[in-house]
Specification:
2 copies of one chain form a homodimer.
Chain A lengths: L8 E2 L9 H7 L9 H17 L8 E6 L3 H10 L6 E6 L2 H12 L3 E6 L8 H10 L4 E5 L1 E2 L4 E2 L2 H11 L4 E5 L18 E5 L10 E6 L1 H8 L12 H12 L11 H15 L3 H21 L16 E5 L6 H10 L2 E2 L1 E2 L9 E5 L3 H4 L5 H15 L6
Chain lengths: 385, 385
């Protein structure tokens, strides 16, 4: 059986379809996690992440830890915050709310700003909040996977750096890294958290993050020790530094196969200019947006400038149920995801269009999915009024 | 390139060599983590873990979470302990000490019992400690990967259940599950933690654990909320229960590829009686032990009954350095690990003999490694006195 044997095309907002070479790397023969071969692969992987995040500041520190994207929230909450400190959470859906829950689990005092469903907090409100209270950090979800709402992290970081320069700017980039631009140094960002299985195009199982020198300094300046072990950045930092210096090091066993797959995925990404990759994701997102409009439907994201280029959340016609349309899509070889935002979960579907499905010219996943959506809605008795 | 293309045989105490079918599963095509196909695979995997751990009590709860074995320590420390509560840690090396560090990171008061290097705490001392103080839980490292010392967890659990029945018995089974017997129900164990990349024979990247109904009750009876998010058993429990009931569920994205590989590995293990598997690991360990004796060398484990069947830690002859012998072994296609226990790290090597290298009759990994060790020592100028 080929690992890529015929299968429905996975167009949910992560995991995504994988390049054959990436999947091949997943079945790499067994290696020691401290052997010279794997150490070189892991070190190279960490260095490539610096390029992906567009940071050349040697004080920036990448981390790759076995786990899911959610573990990235714990890294921030456990290491950058001390119990009782204040965090400002900008929420544009389920994942913004989740970050707030995680911060509170570690004892942070959280103030949450949110927009309406399909919207995001306004810059004026963010600046006001930052000027009225001292926040150790603010979090912003770059693309909220529940709504497909894109936040303008460049403007948010600029506002924070201006109004409250001591506040750390933390970006949840789970559904944005490798498809939306993130200029880590230039935009003044202190942390970006992501996962392997979205636009990076590697199977799930890795928590990937980048922290600024300012964030590391905040960690070192803590008055209390972080109450975590596996998520302790202090314990992982020398390990990551050693791997990148091609020296074996041990805290907890990494997954050589997943690291090989990530290495392959990053090489594919970095073989072309990042700007081209971001542009291609924009073009594909615009195509999906036009198809949605042509069908007489609306996206969950209310404003045009808030629509992500990673995925599109689409309101179904009134009389068409999610449970009716998803099986019809599957019959046509396409997998979309159902809704996740609790206030509207039964009313919309999510169409992921990132990674190889967007950038590999040999694939026509997105065109095929648009056609399948049109046909499925038609079979459900829907026609544009 | 075949994923299993010619490579040196990995005989460290994890990761281990993998069965071809397990590696093939690693490159499974992309699936939704909430799609029916993957949900069935994950559910079946959880049910198979009950058989591996020999528990038929429906109150027992398996967990499989992206992470390393170390994350298992956090599960215990964050969920079963509240800050200020007391834990008794039985240490037979680096990993017993690590568990103590993790418990302390979460605010536990730790009492540590340890034997000499190569030994373990004595049962009488354990009983005495349990009778003198009230401990919320005790931890015992079944096989300490740094020393190859095997603990008698059946006797430890029996002693704890007799002397201090309210104390939870927690076993670190990272280097023992699937090669040393663990009768979870019969022996009165409350938690076993392990990782995917050791005797289970799946690539690294999964934290695997089993908790008793008593442990779950202790979690529910907490006065304070656990200060963790990703390691929160309360958040994961309904997810695991839903997957096992074949219902989609979401807290954080699991790794479909690793779960497929684990599923394949467990099917291979459970296709034969577990007793046969444990017996085979004993035979292989005895063969290694005899070879060590024949070479005039000593194992780090002092007493015969304390020698694990997963791995053997072997003191090198006085004049042979670890850095001299490991490259010679590699020349012969064999990878051993260096030492890890800080007091003796430069004096010994570790030989892992678990998983397919022990049980697959088509392989002669262990015989080849014994021969390579003999030749390498000879090349280093060593001959038995």
């Amino acid at each position: 059986m080929s690992s890529q044997s015929a299968h429905p095309t996975l167009l949910i907002p992560g995991p995504v379809e994988f390049d054959d070479g990436v999947l091949q790397s997943m079945s790499h023969y067994s290696e020691s996690h401290v052997g010279a071969g794997f150490v070189a692969t892991f070190g190279e992987t960490l260095s490539m992440l610096r390029r992906l995040f567009q940071t050349t500041n040697s004080a920036s520190q990448p981390f790759v830890i076995s786990g899911s994207g959610t573990l990235g929230w714990d890294l921030v909450a456990a290491n950058l915050m001390e119990p009782g400190e204040a965090a400002l959470v900008l929420s544009s859906g389920y994942f913004g709310d989740g970050f707030a829950d995680c911060l509170e689990a570690y004892g942070a005092k959280v103030t949450k700003l949110e927009g309406p469903v399909g919207g995001k907090p306004q810059l004026a409100d963010i600046e006001k909040a930052l000027s009225q209270n001292k926040y150790k950090l603010l979090t912003v979800t770059h693309v909220d996977t529940s709504t497909g709402v894109l936040s303008d992290i460049k403007s948010v970081a600029a506002a924070a750096n201006k109004v409250s320069p001591e506040t750390l700017v933390v970006v949840d980039g789970v559904c944005s890294v490798a498809c939306e631009e993130i200029a880590f140094d230039e935009w003044g960002i202190d942390a970006v958290l992501t996962a392997s299985q979205k636009a990076i195009g590697c199977p799930a199982g890795l928590c990937i993050s980048m922290f600024s020198g300012r964030a590391i300094a905040a960690l070192k300046a803590r008055k209390t020790e972080p109450a975590t072990y596996f998520a302790s950045m202090k314990r992982w930092m020398p390990i990551m530094q050693n791997y990148e210096a091609k020296k074996p090091s041990y805290f907890a066993t990494p997954s050589p196969q997943l690291i090989h797959a990530l290495n392959t995925a990053l090489k594919l990404i970095l073989a072309r200019p990042l700007s081209e990759r971001f542009q291609r994701h924009k073009e594909v997102a615009n195509k999906v947006r036009k198809a949605v409009t042509d069908l007489g439907l609306k996206t969950v994201a209310i404003n045009d400038e808030d629509r992500s280029h990673a995925m599109t959340a689409i309101y179904l016609p009134n009389k068409v149920a999610v449970t009716e349309v998803l099986p019809k899509l599957l019959d046509k070889g396409v997998i979309f995801a159902g809704g996740l935002h609790k206030e509207i979960a039964t009313k919309y579907v999510r169409f992921g269009h990132m990674g190889v499905s967007a950038v590999d010219p040999k694939r026509n996943d997105v065109d095929m999915a648009i056609k399948a959506l049109e046909e499925s809605l038609s079979e459900c008795g829907y026609s544009k009024a």
